[in-house]
C-alpha cells in the first residue's frame, strides 16, 4: 500500500514547537502557537448532527499508557497520519480558541504526539499558556 504524500513543510506552528523543544519558556513561540490553527481529528464514525453548534467542537479523547486522558491535535495532515492513520476527517481550529474553552477536568493536550517536536500540556498549562 502506498503512503499518502502530504505537504509536511514546517509551518509556523511546527516551527514554534521546534523552538519550544529548545526553550520551553520561549514566549514568542508560545504566542505563535496560540495563534496557529491545529487539526482536531474527527472520528470517521462521528455523525454530523443537523442543528449542531458549529462553534462547538467534540474533543477526541485518547488514553495515554498511564491511563490519563489526552486530546491529540496536529500541526499538519502528515503529523496526524503518523499517529492516527485511520482518521481521515478533521476540523481546523485556532489553538488559542480551543484553549480558551478548555474543560475544567484534568485533560491534557498533545500537539503532534508522535513527533520529535511533540508538546503535551496539562489542563492548567493549556489554559494559562495558550489561551491568549
Explained architecture:
This protein has 132 residues and is α+β, with helices and mostly antiparallel strands. The protein has one domain (12-46, 58-130): 3-Layer(aba) Sandwich (Trna Endonuclease, Chain: A, domain 1), CATH 3.40.1350. It is built from 5 helices and 6 strands. It has helices at 12-22, 27-34, 77-83, 95-100, 123-130, and strands at 37-42, 62-63, 69-73, 89-94, 108-111, 119-121. Strand 2 (62-63) and strand 3 form a beta hairpin. Helix 1 (12-22) runs antiparallel to helix 2. It is globular. The N and C termini lie far apart (42 Å). Mean pLDDT is 82; it is low at 1-6.
Which helices and strands, and how do they pair?
Elements: H1 12-22, H2 27-34, E1 37-42, E2 62-63, E3 69-73, H3 77-83, E4 89-94, H4 95-100, E5 108-111, E6 119-121, H5 123-130
Parallel strand pairs: 3-5
Antiparallel strand pairs: 1-4, 2-3, 5-6
Helix pairs in contact: 1-2
Query: What's the structural domain tally?
Result: 1
What would you say the CATH architecture is?
A: 3-Layer(aba) Sandwich
Number of E strands: 6
| Most strands sheet | 4 strands, mixed
What is the strand arrangement across the widest sheet? 2-3-5-6
What's the end-to-end separation, in Å?
A: 42 Å
- The helix/strand series, from N terminus to C terminus, equals HHEEEHEHEEH
Based on CA atoms alone, the radius of gyration comes out at: 15 Å
Domain SseB protein N-terminal: 14-127
Pfam families: SseB
InterPro entries: SseB_N
Protein name: SseB protein N-terminal domain-containing protein
